[in-house]
């Protein structure tokens, strides 16, 4: 059975959670939602202990989800955009991917069949935040994700905005189908 992980990266209850549930309901397979606001995520210490031990020495919720992301068949990364960037807890999670990056011991090539769907939600209408999606997709490559696509869900300042936008729901459905194909 396939295993999919959905990361909901918002510090509040709102569109990211609604999108995560929408994705879970759209997939008939085993899906785990990692809701960042309910997790303990320490900052990366950048002490390079992970390069010696081949694992992060901070064994919190980030450590657990990073290992699961390496093993899953596909994932979805949902995040709001605040002031043109990812929220702090999301950035801290991505910084922790450093524990899996060790060029001195060789790197596994990302698998093009391991797909990441990225959904960025934001209040502004037509902003182009696709560079944030590209940077995020690059970071997930360290965990084996070789393909990613980003969709932008704008004009979602209202925490229930996604529920009222059939066009965004259809884009997310298409993204789900691409990840699980």
Describe the structure in your own words.
The structure is a single chain. The chain is α/β, with parallel strands linked by helices and 181 residues long. The chain contains six helices and five strands, in the order βαβααβαβαβα. The protein has helices at residues 15-26, 49-53, 61-71, 88-95, 130-140, 166-180; strands at residues 3-8, 30-35, 74-80, 111-121, 145-153. The radius of gyration is 16 Å and the shape is globular. The mean pLDDT is 93.
Précis, in short:
With 181 residues, the protein is an alpha/beta fold.
Give the overall silhouette.
globular
Tally of strands: 5
Q: Which class best fits the helix and strand makeup?
A: alpha/beta
The number of helical runs is 6
Mean pLDDT: 93
Descriptive labels:
181 residues; alpha/beta; five-stranded parallel β-sheet; 6 helices; 34% helix; globular
Element layout with pairings:
Layout (H helix, E strand, L loop, with lengths): L2 E6 L6 H12 L3 E6 L13 H5 L7 H11 L2 E7 L7 H8 L15 E11 L8 H11 L4 E9 L12 H15 L1
Parallel strand pairs: 1-2, 1-3, 3-4, 4-5
